[in-house]
Amino acid sequence: MSSQTCRRWLTPALICVGLALAACSQEAGESGEPDMTIENGMQVSLEYTLKLDDETVVDSNVGEEPWTYTQGAGEMIPGVEKGVVGMTIGEAKEITVSPEDGFGETIPDAIREVPKSEIPEGALKLGAELQGQGPGGEVIRARVTEIRDETVMVDFNHPLAGQTLHFTVKVVDAQQGSTLITPAAE
Question: What range does the domain containing 6 cover?
Answer without folding.
Answer: 1-34
